[in-house]
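Practice problem: predict the structure.
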Amino acid sequence: MPDTPVSRPLLLRGGHVLFPDGTSRIADVLIRDGRIADAGDAVATAGDEEIIDTGGQLVMPGLVDTHRHMWLGSLSAGSSDVTLLPYARQVNERLGDGFTAEDVYAGVLWGAVQAINAGVTTVADWAHNLGSDADIDANLRALHDSGIRARLYFGGKAGSSGDHSRYEAQTRRLHATQATRLSGGRIALGLALRGPSMATPAETAYEFGLARELGLPISLHAGMAGLPGAVDQLGRQDLLGPDVNYVHANEFTEREWKQVAESGGTVSATPTVDMTMGLGTHPATGAALEHGVPVGLGADTVAYGPSDLFAEMRLALAAERSRTNAGPIERGEMPGGLRHSHLDMLDLATRGGARVLGFADQLGEIAVGRQADLITLDLSTPHLDGFGSPVLAAFLGAGPRDVDTVIVGGRILKHRGTLTDGLLEKARQEVRSSRTRIRGRSL
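Answer:
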């Protein structure tokens, strides 16, 4: 399944370009062969470029979502006001258990549409509802057809991974096809493991052993309220390492943070779900930064929360300042300063996410040689037409409707506010048919 070829070079002309040092200025960005060829004030062109006028727009790196269950795209707004276990019964079991391969395809494709529309160009797809080879193929096909960049964390089927022979066979099959089949490198592979919070020590050792035999990065849920000690358990089993990504991490102890930092692990924080589902009192963004642990942001499940990383950035900053300001406020004092900035949170959703997913040298900033994964935001709307920095205006007010253009690997997936190549219409048809089937089964 090769990528759709990039037809011609692109020149993004005259936008407010966000550069790696956090400053923005009017500049051009040149894209050739799917990568950033130049960015600056006097970009040399060859005359064969397709020109996109980005005047009055902010040009910035595409957003990187480090934890999202893409198959849940079709079940968006399907649950609320419940904690983790009731949510799992409502969504994963009552609705997800009946998914066919066609439903997987529709859910992942619609999830990708939601992400792309909101300016997410790379996503960590934590896939834990894939029971059959047909399900796996459908998930891969949906990611490919959407044009998004992804790391597919394969997790088999929730509740059935005790069948080691099937899980291992599926994993090895996926790994064997990675070099030739996963969209020419646009889709990378990892393993979504249950970890100590959801598996026995023996099962955890087996799953980690398989991942490391195949050289695949690991992601697992850990540090959620009521499920303590995951990192300590991995430490006792000598399983810690730089290939482990910890999702949530809300309730890590100081000892666990030190273990993660010393072992080179990474963290994915999902502020909306972390706080509203009761997985912790605040997201792990600040604690991770304080301990030098690479951290990114994720939407987690659109069945329960938004698909918008701009909203996650704002919530992460508010939550972190609330946490660090609590001491002086409790003493009746006004805080003397504020911890972290909008640029810190923006970094988590771009370069930070790239670091977490193992793409640090490829994505996350506008620099020569990086993958041309870029978005532009229309600054002409009243809520973004601000007095100060366009970057600050975007942080404070941007949402999916403000995303004008989305480019992944030099390919335009959204332009002038509309998804290209009929993707929205195709995905909408697929998801509506799937939802009819899902409702019919759940009645």
